[in-house]
Design brief:
Blueprint: H1 2-28, E1 32-33, E2 39-40, E3 43-44, E4 60-64, E5 77-78, E6 82-83, E7 97-106, E8 111-130, E9 133-142, E10 146-157, E11 160-182, E12 186-194
Parallel strand pairs: 4-8, 5-10, 6-10
Antiparallel strand pairs: 1-2, 3-4, 7-12, 8-11, 8-12, 9-10, 9-11
Length: 195
């Protein structure tokens, strides 16, 4: 009986040691954990070969797929990048908002590639930040396949509502992709389409 107890105890000690070695190896590999306990997986940033931004972009990002999958039927045509000027904008009245969604990113994640499936028509896109964030670029894809890249030039911005892109003639927006990094513990990014 003593021999059985000693054998079981030995196996338990070996298992605990192996688990702690595996956890230590995970920390050495740079595996981070999201505040809710899920691992944060970094992957290579993928951009289209005709993407107009030519500076060195982050090599590894956390990819957040759109909650709503949207198909763009037309071939993609990248327009020249627009340099973004941060203009603080008032939030339009609720009845003027056509679509909205948000994404929370944490500082532990590093650069996050967020995607918003919109598939609706409007005249302007707004970006609201709750927290401080470094913004790299946004890609606005329209129904006709045109992709307007907005270059944030990796600048840090504080809490506020900003004009992301105006198109007064009215356009059908399919998707918005934003590459950002939280400089606060957590930053909530909200995108709005208004008419």
């Amino acid at each position: 009986m003593k021999r059985l107890i000693l054998t079981v105890l030995s196996f338990a000690i070996i298992i605990v040691m192996l688990l702690s070695l595996d956890a230590a190896a995970g920390q050495r590999r740079g595996v981070a954990h999201h505040p809710v306990g899920r691992p944060i997986v970094h992957t290579r940033l993928v951009i289209h070969p005709r993407h107009p931004i030519r500076r060195v972009l982050p090599a590894a990002v956390v990819v957040r797929p759109a909650r709503r999958a949207v198909v763009v039927g037309a071939p993609l045509t990248f327009l020249p990048a627009v340099a973004w000027t941060p203009v603080v904008a008032p939030m339009p009245p609720r009845e003027r908002l056509v679509w909205q969604d948000n994404e929370a990113i944490s500082s532990e994640e590093g650069w996050v590639d967020t995607n918003f499936g919109i598939d609706d028509s409007g005249k302007a896109l707004l970006l609201e930040l709750n927290g401080k964030a470094d913004l790299n670029f946004a890609e606005v894809t329209f129904a006709n396949g045109n992709v307007q890249v907005v270059d944030f030039n990796e600048k840090t911005h504080d809490t506020g509502v900003y004009k992301l892109l105006d198109f007064a003639d009215g356009r059908h927006v399919k998707t918005v992709r934003i590459l950002a990094k939280s400089e606060s513990d957590e930053t909530k990014m909200s995108v709005y389409l208004s008419k």
